[in-house]
Amino acid sequence: MNATRLFLGDRLGADRTPSPDDDAPRRKPRRAGKSPWRSPLAVTGLAIIGVFLIAAVFASLISPEDPLAQKWPKYQSPSGDHWFGTDQLGRDILSRVIHGTRISLPLALLLVVLAMVIGTVLGAVAGYFGGWIDMVVMRCADLVLAFPAIILAMAVVAALGPNLTNAVLAVVIVSWPTYARVVRGLVLTLRQSDFVQADRLLGASGWRVLAVDLRPNLAGPVAVLAALDLGNAVLLLSGLSFLGLGAQPPAAEWGAMVNAGSANFDAWWVAVFPGAAILLSVLAFNFLGDTLRDALDPRTARAIRK
Amino acid sequence: MTALSGTSNLTVTSKDVGLRLHDLSVTYRSPGRPLVRAVAGVSLAVAPGQVVGLVGESGCGKSTLGKAAVGLLKPAGGRVTFNGRAVDTLGLRPRPSDQRGLQMVFQDPYASLNPRRRIGEQISDAVVLAGGTRERGRETARELLERVGLAAEFVDRFPHEFSGGQRQRIAIARVLAAEPSCIVADEPIAALDASAQASVANLLLDLARERNVGLLFISHDLSIVRQIADTVAVMYLGTVVESGPTAQVWDDPRHPYSKALISAVPRADGSGELPVDLPGDVPDPAFPPTGCRFHPRCPIATDACEVDEPALVEFLPERRAACSVLAPALTKVG
Asked: Which CATH number fits domain A107-305: 1.10.3720.10, 3.30.499.10, 2.30.30.90, 3.40.50.2300?
């Protein structure tokens, strides 16, 4: 046996007693170069979202008037008293836009989280276990994806009754399949990987593989998807309210306000300001989503830049 | 080498201990292609503490055999037993705990560690899955990292911070955490550079000795197998053509294929002799030759070889070869 050791050592250079130098792992600086969070897009996105969040938290302090009070002449153009003017019922539009953040942002966040959780769990289970579960889940996803999102959401709300809760539910129903598809694809490739096989050999159950082994590998792509989806969620939710299927009067909701403005084009300010709020928030969420993708998935980001 | 006598004792006293393959065959089915019998009836035994080398050219079914041996592939025929009980093919259920002593080290250390989990967590998985606490698992991970020649403080690092050789040590540590009595190592050193190859091979050998672990060492590197294996099995196109104690097979190969394979190892003896070339290539396993699978390339083949499939016969204690031309002569020599 000693002869064996010597032979191998001589022939191939013994590193039997690893010196500290040899075994020091190659620590790479985590992020070489510029952090994606310093890019102008990211800063803009963060700033806009920051402003909206502050507006949402301190809405009653910031807004000059009660958003529901109808004590001013209707259709007043923007002025020093009412920066954004007043609407068809004589309400202060600035206050209503500010209060609108309290509906749009938390609900968008809530429904994205719901869609993410539902879609990820279903997609992971379908991808890992396959068979009839996969068939059922993915056919349901295909069914949902076969409709234009807003049409299906309208149908769902029409069936359940038009109010904000049902609108959120409807948007969740049309949003989960995207997550399910992406996650299923990832799980399908990862489940055959050696590290999953190794964990199975150690006795891990399928659920443990999903929850422990694959969760960290799925977290990044899903987070990027969710961040990019936030903008969509705001848009869909406002869209439903615009159609009268979401927030009901007199609630201060951006989509509903745009709808009110569309009745009278002479008073452009009624629709433009809530519309701009929608535009800015969607834009900011998309900036953030892009930044998150750059940070978590540098490979795709590089491919896009080229 | 005292291992040889140890080996024969074990096979006499404990027939069912360790890993045994009985006439194992594994097939690959793909649409529009004929059935491929990658492993076509192989019997092997790996006793605790014994190092069995499995050698053969690329594509001869070595890795397929290794995967089927631990239950990652479903055998098409034959049986695999571990400590006397049949090894289940991994399905959706968790692996029964009495089979967790049979573990595998994979070829590619870049694929066999989860890139997103700390290595300490991955090593402690086995302990946690066996019902231990996280603290116990972490302690085990630290101990095992030191055992495989890395620093215990590395538990909180991620795989991307390590080199290939270090990763393979980590993968070995993970397997050790399951307290295995048999390890199937599928080309564990093929993806490493020369110095890491030697140290990882030595590490596996040491562990097999010190923990009385059986080791099925699958490799195409004959010189490494010669150095660490007690017994060796030579595979050709899905079948074992010769097996026996390593030194004997090495010095006195009988089967024409093992002869060619062993003489193909370059020797630095100064004689300037070039290895003998075998005519032809390894045939497509989807269309294996009839009779003896080696006959189209065999220098001593007769017409009968195209028809008769030779059985693996024991012509000396522990030595077997599958060749119908040699069979009568072999037994006489014995």
From this structure: 1.10.3720.10
Please indicate, yes or no, if residue B16 is contained in any of the structural domains.
Answer: yes
B22: number of Cβ within 10 Å: 16
Task: Say yes or no: B8 contacts chain A, CB-CB below 8 A.
Answer: no
Number of domains in chain B: 1
> How many residues comprise chain A?
306
Q: What value of ipTM does the predicted structure carry? A: 0.85
Q: Any chain A CB within 8 A of the CB of B226? A: no
For B305-328, write each residue's pLDDT tens digit: 888 888 888 888 889 999 888 877
- Kindly state whether A305 is in contact with chain B, defined as any CB-CB distance less than 8 angstroms: no
Locate the chain A residue with the closest alpha carbon to B180: A202
H or E segment to which residue B43 belongs: strand B36-46
Query: What is the tens place of the pLDDT at every residue in B193-212?
Result: 888 898 999 999 999 999 99
Are A258 and A240 within 8 A, CB to CB? no
φ and ψ of B298, to 5 deg:
-85, 130
Global pTM value: 0.80
| Nearest CA-CA distance, residue B261 and chain A, Å | 21
CB–CB contact A216 B117 (8 Å): yes
Smallest Cα distance from A295 to chain B, Å: 15
Q: How far is A130 from chain B (nearest CA, A)?
A: 10
Q: Which of B125, B189, B197, B207 to mutate to test the interface with A (most CBs of A within 10 A)?
A: B125
Residue extents of the structural domains in chain A:
107-305
Question: What would the two tokens of residue A286 be?
Answer: 């998309």
Inter-chain touch A13–B205, beta carbons under 8 Å: no
Q: Which domain holds residue B266?
A: 3-89+180-333
Task: Identify the residue whose tokens are 């719901």.
Answer: A114
